[in-house]
Specification:
alpha/beta, 9 helices, five-stranded parallel sheet, six-stranded mixed sheet, about 30% helix, globular, about 375 residues
């Protein structure tokens, strides 16, 4: 392997950083460039905690990480399509604003964007909440004039919506503030794609809280602080007052990159030898997990980084990505959580699940410090 391997990574999320750290550990002399439009890495699996914690607590500057892992961060947004990927693979360089950046291998780990194109004014989605402190937003609602009982609507009852609902309820109950919180779900039951035990536990917890779960409701629009919903079964429209609206109706890759078993990009079924992908924007062939979870993103990043170094070596072969997710835990406010560990039949909840989730988050914190606890 060349001691001066040039690796360019587009995207500084879980997959991109996992690949970067792995590559740096295995190739101390490689020249690594990270391209990401943000100034910092966001621990997005902890974003719901910003209801009660500063946003800065779950961010780490790329400047700090660049010093720690010896890479160059270029703060820029890169757009591409299939044609441009083919050009990059052939010429082995790309343009970042006015600069030409050469590479031996390119890794694309650009993640996802919200499913809806643009959030209406006054509606907060994952993008806006990753830039504005949710605790400050909620504080304004709590202290708002003429709001004796504010109405808060969380649109989307997936894991993110549920986690934010529990955090908001906890904070408002701690403040002894009267409120109404509606969790708007387009499905018949909560957590439709998760084990039944998880859904039952969440339902039980909500039953003891001032939270109304509105089922079979599609979000249509918001006008003058009024949310317009459409019943999935009857087609009937209804309106809800809203003093605060959070929108979590899912994320999707802006551009899904299909890859072979080893993470090399397939462009019109043609393998691009010098371009790999990882994370939520990628779909690998084979049996490895393609779930859009931080766990899969980290594992894909590690696997692809190793394959890039193998490809650049003497033997020039790659290994298949075969990771299967070994658990999923959903936070339900401070000191509570629910999920499965090992396999979906091993159900955990309450304090043991909370401790397990904190341990999982701590593993990633150690990873960002350079300590590898992922086996």
């Amino acid at each position: 392997m060349s001691s001066m391997l040039k690796l360019v990574i587009i995207g500084g999320g879980y997959a991109g950083l996992s690949a970067l750290i792995t590559a740096r550990k295995l190739s101390p002399h490689a020249h690594i460039t990270l391209i990401d439009p943000r100034p910092h890495h966001l621990l997005i699996t902890r974003l719901h905690e910003t209801v009660r914690r500063p946003l800065d607590a779950i961010q780490i500057s790329f400047h700090v990480l660049a010093k720690r892992f010896n890479f160059i961060h270029k703060q820029s947004f890169i757009e591409f399509d299939q044609d441009l990927l083919a050009v990059w693979n052939k010429q082995k360089y790309l343009q970042v604003e006015d600069e030409i950046v050469a590479f031996d291998y390119l890794l694309i780990a650009t993640g996802t964007i919200p499913s809806h194109a643009n959030s209406p004014f006054g509606v907060y989605d994952l993008n806006t909440l990753s830039q504005k402190n949710c605790a400050d937003i909620l504080q304004k609602v709590i202290l708002g004039n003429n709001l004796e009982e504010p109405v808060i609507n969380v649109i989307g009852a997936g894991p993110t919506g549920i986690q934010f609902s529990f955090e908001i309820s906890h904070v408002l109950l701690q403040c002894h503030k009267k409120f109404r919180l509606n969790l708007i779900d387009s499905h018949e039951k909560l957590l439709d794609n998760f084990p039944d035990e998880m859904a039952k536990y969440v339902e039980q917890r909500f039953a003891n809280m001032p939270v109304s779960v509105l089922r079979n409701q599609y979000y249509k629009d918001i006008q003058n602080n009024q949310i317009i919903l459409k019943n999935k079964r009857t087609g009937e429209e209804s309106m809800l007052a809203s003093d605060l609206t959070l929108m979590f109706i899912g994320n999707k890759p802006k551009f899904t990159l299909h890859a072979n078993l080893s993470g090399q990009v397939l462009n019109n079924k043609v393998c691009l030898n010098y371009i790999f992908t990882a994370g939520d924007c990628s779909y690998f062939e084979g049996i490895g997990s393609n779930l859009m979870t931080s766990q899969s993103a980290i594992r894909k990043g590690k696997a692809v980084a190793k394959n890039i170094l193998l490809k650049a070596g003497v033997l020039k072969f790659c290994l298949p990505y075969m990771h299967q997710d070994i658990g999923y835990i959903l936070s339900l406010g401070p000191n509570d959580a629910v999920g499965w560990i090992g396999n979906k039949n091993i159900f955990v909840n309450g304090l043991p699940a909370f401790v397990a989730k904190e341990a999982i988050e701590a593993k990633y914190d150690w990873w960002l410090l350079g300590v590898d606890s992922y086996f």
